Amino acid sequence: MAQNKFKGLGIALVTPFKADGSVDYDALVRLVDFQLSHGADFLCILGTTAETPTLTAEEKRQIRDVVVQRAGGRVPLLMGCGGNCTSAVINELKSTDWTGIDGVLSVCPMYNKPSQEGLYQHFKAIAQASPVPVVLYNVPGRTGVNMTAETTLRLARDCENVVAIKEASGNITQMDDIIKNKPANFDVISGDDGITFPLITLGAVGVISVIGNALPAEFSRMVRLALKGEYAQALHIHHKFTELFKLLFVDGNPAGVKAMLHAMGVVENELRLPLVPTTLVTMEKISTIVRELGIKY
């Protein structure tokens, strides 16, 4: 039976771009090293925060290879592989080299809005085809469909290869229902930085974090304190970043965290259309917080 390796602080890695729009692989290596030396427990590559829909197949292959070469064997690696055509996802699962990758993060199908039965059949087929453990990803704000607790629990019970869900529905009651009724070999991972603390108090095992790109040491400390039940100290850190949680998403993701990483001198403030950088007002607010917190790369 597959086991979930993705616990603690996971980083939803951004894709650094150069001023000419090409992928900055040197910056990606530096970013990976920064995560590994500052407390990240696992890395998630080619997810939403990576601007994956704008990457070519060759760029995705190179990003995978760079991260596997730099971090493989040191921390678990989770890689995005999903879509709204089940057969296409299965073909990608079968044709991809999964060497060095410990699991696949597969998002609910977007745009075509399947029923709960459709979601169940989609993920069941993916679980059967995947050579590595599967982490489900429920993010209705992006996909247009919410996978209910009932469907998630059905998949958790029926598919041995489905080991966890990244829950970003924003519905605490739904998440609590999953945590309360899940089988022992299935975990809930927070998909939102801002609710990571309360979700861990309910029984979640960690987070796939956006803010962790810039603040892995601080955020991993909060996560670890919460996981150990030291809630007062964890809550203090959580409240410290409340304003930043909002700022990082006011102009969309990953515009906010790329602005922060740029203010820290880590990456260029470059995104690929249709995404654009944060407004100047947001950038100035983020830069001010970086200075006030004394955050350095």
Can you give keywords for this protein?
8 strands; TIM Barrel; single chain; alpha/beta; 13 helices; about 300 residues
Please explain how this structure is put together.
The structure is a single chain. With 297 residues, this protein is α/β, with parallel strands linked by helices. It has one domain (8-230): TIM Barrel, CATH 3.20.20.70. 45% of the residues lie in helices and 12% in strands. An eight-stranded parallel sheet has the order 7-6-5-4-3-2-1-8. Helix 2 links the parallel strand 2 (42-45) and strand 3 (77-80). The radius of gyration is 18 Å and the shape is globular. The protein starts with 7 loop residues before the first strand and ends with a helix. The relative contact order is 0.14.
Distance between the terminal alpha carbons, to the nearest Å?
Answer: 40 Å
Contiguous runs where pLDDT drops below 50 for at least 5 residues: none
**Please, what is the CATH homologous superfamily?**
Aldolase class I
> What proportion strand?
5-15%
Read across the widest sheet, the strand sequence of neighbours is: 7-6-5-4-3-2-1-8
Shape: globular
> The biggest beta sheet, please?
8 strands, parallel
Number of strands: 8
Query: What is the helix content?
Result: 40-55%
